[in-house]
Amino acid sequence: MQIYLPIAEVSVNAFLLLGMGGMVGILSGMFGVGGGFLMTPLLFFIGIPPAVAVATEANQIVASSFSGVLAHLRRKTVDLRMGTVLLTGGLVGAAFGVVIFNHLKSLGQVDLLVKLCYVVFLGVIGSLMFVESLNALRKSRNNVPPSRKKHNWIHGLPFKMRFRVSGLYISVIPPLIVGVFVGILSAIMGVGGGFIMVPAMIYLLGMPTKVVVGTSLFQIIFVTAFTTLLHATTNYTVDIALAVLLLIGGVIGAQIGTRLGTYLKAEQLRILLALLVILVCAKLALDLLIQPTELFSIGASEGH
Q1: Cα diameter, the chain
Q2: Which of 88, 99, 251 is nearest to 159 (CA)?
Q3: What's the whole-model pTM score?
Q4: How far apart are CA 25 and CA 19, in angstroms?
Q5: Residue among 222, 189, 203, 215 nearest 114 (CA)
Q6: For residues 270 and 126, what is the distance between their CA atoms, to the nearest angstrom?
Q7: How crowded is residue 194: how many other Cβ atoms within 10 Å of its Cβ?
Q8: Which of 188, 186, 213, 189 is closest to 199 using CA atoms?
């Protein structure tokens, strides 16, 4: 069933969009990521313009993350205090990110920048997560107790706050910086930032894995909602028809993903996520490197 998307100005299969939304929703519930790092490139692949994909995907992330958070709140695996600190930084970062996005859009460079950002970030993060997850899996099989690293430089920073659910007493500066960085990424790349947020919360802040997923989703809801609002009012690139179809699939998928996540070990979840990130990065890099079949069609369409 083909449906015409007015803002994207393309026709796509409605069931394909529902399926994509559902798949990304499952990832959201399992890994604590908004799923935008996967969905936005998928939208590029089916012909949605990058500017529309980024703005609309931020909208879909809100719904799938909200659905996932409800399940985690019932289990009491959300650190609301930590989430609020991350959120404060995230809102500042998102506002700054939209300013950068608008400037690049006026220069006509936004499509290339978005794709290059994806290749760089997904490549680096996917590789680091994959190596770390393999080491963690090897240690758990050999019954080696996980070593809790003490990051002295973080513990020495001022403005400390107690995060009871995470069992931490650390400075609010590192979570604020992580939040700002993720907010900028959310605005430029149309992602919730979970693929950076989750590793940062585990390895940088030292949060327990079971609390990380729910807390990450809590923060993602508000940052991506704010990003969507800014994109809709400044760029007019939010496609409601596309957003609704992705939303329906995402909400259903997030509930399934949250249940599936309970059956897998934390190390297995991280290794699966790392492999997904690397695969998407490879496909995007290939698309940027391979010469298009119709070299002159791009120039012709831009001339109109």
Answers
A1: 64
A2: 88
A3: 0.66
A4: 10
A5: 189
A6: 10
A7: 29
A8: 213
